[in-house]
Amino acid sequence: MAEIDWAGSWATSTAYTASDPRQAVGNNGSSYVCILSHTSGSSNQPGVGASWTSYWEVIAEKGTDGIGAGDMLGANNLSDLANAATARTNLGVAIGSDVQAHTAVLDGTEQSFTTALKNKLDGVESGADVTDTANVTAAGALMDSEVDADIKTLSLPANTTISSFGASLIDDAAASNARTTLGLGNVDNTSDANKPVSTPQQAALVSRAGDTLTGRLVSASGATTGNNGIATATALLGEYEVQNNGTGAAMMAFHRGGAFAGYFGLDTDNLWKVGGWSHGAAAYKLWHEGTLATIGQAEAEAGTATTERAWTAQRVKQAIDALGSSPLERIGPVQVASNSASINFTNLPTNYFALLLRGRYILPSVNTASLVWRSSVNNGVSWESGGSDYRNAAGGFATNGTANNSFSNGTNAGLVMQTMVSSAGGDGAFEAIIYDAPVTRRTRFSFRSAYERNGGFYDTYQAGCSTRVATTAINGLQLFMNSGLIATGEFILFGISTA
Prior knowledge:
Among the domains are: 4-60, Seminal Fluid Protein  PDC-109 (Domain B), CATH 2.10.10; 251-285, no CATH class; 328-496, Jelly Rolls. Helices cover 14% and strands 30% of the residues. The protein has 10 helices and 22 strands. It has helices at residues 84-91, 104-108, 115-122, 133-138, 149-152, 164-171, 175-181, 199-207, 297-302, 313-323; strands at 4-9, 15-16, 22-27, 30-34, 38-39, 56-60, 250-256, 260-266, 272-275, 283-285, 328-340, 342-346, 354-364, 369-376, 390-398, 410-412, 415-420, 428-435, 444-453, 458-468, 476-481, 486-496. The strands form 5 sheets. Strands 11-22-13-18-19-20-15-16 form an 8-stranded antiparallel β-sheet, with no helix packed on it. It has a 4-stranded mixed β-sheet with strand order 1-3-4-6, with no helix packed on it. The termini are far apart.
């Protein structure tokens, strides 16, 4: 025989099983047992659904309600109620409304809750708390948090007495009364910033004038300046103020003990200055945008005014331009020889009166080589080196007591300016002027040079000139050694203007 498992009242969307033990439910006063496992829904609700007989079998069917009146009517009986709460309601013993629920407190209660007790409780305010500060204060007591810890632990001897003064102090109703009792009636809680300085204190402070302050004197950050910058017309700002005495300067002294000292401030002419003391009887202005006017173009170009002015780069250039061009202007960079076959100058300018060529630290790579010059008409593509291209004349003088004057005429492939030895001799230098290079006339080349020969035994001075036979303009100059290379040397070309 299969067992039955009572599952209570039927409920929808619930899984019911027909396996052993089969589940049984109650619905509308009748009891049913599951004969086919399923999930409940409206179509298989026991005794109601269209296909309920495929899933359920009646165990006990609800009978017909009796007629007449009384407690045993279907509406009042207990036989087919769904739960105990409904039964208690039918019997008039609903917990909370008809009867009080059972508690252990009620088991221990032996007294009745009288009307007098109810009235007493009705007189207590809603949310009353015996530890509420307002209630405690109203009762003339103190909260525990208001009592000093030392007083809590204070233990007075049995014979302790309170003097009449102490009693009056305790009885004072306010702090102001207590201050009067204590003889402190003039003491109040004025903030430090607002405490006045007494007349004796002020006199004492004044008498300290001239004292030395040790340590740092620091002003409260932005105490008066606030968010203002220096460019403000508002008066009496700043953390410190130095005032003059009478009509003198408003100044401060700076002193490096035993070393140097001076003053800084606003002088009697309202200009910022430094000076005095170690500077002597002198004051030096601090120039700035407010004290210097910018010089004008006319004044800058004239160059005669003595008034102090501020200068801009534009005015400086205008003043320089007004002076005119220098008669000697460098053309290109310095050319440095280092075992060089030649030194060439090309693209010679055409706007100069003459050209000046200078050389120094000149040495040949082989003994008794000579430094020679020649010209070009095509910017150095080729150089004029014919045997009759130049007419030369030269003279020389040797020191150390021996004169050696010479003069020569003739044509050559270039002008010999120096004849030197490299290993035993010292270096040489020269200066040459080239006339009429850019015009259709004969170009003339004059020079003077000095060099050492034979280990410095002879200091030789040589001078000479050369004329280019052709009359066409030239645009290139070349320096070279007639044998070997230019071992060392520095060469620079200048233009001589007509200004």
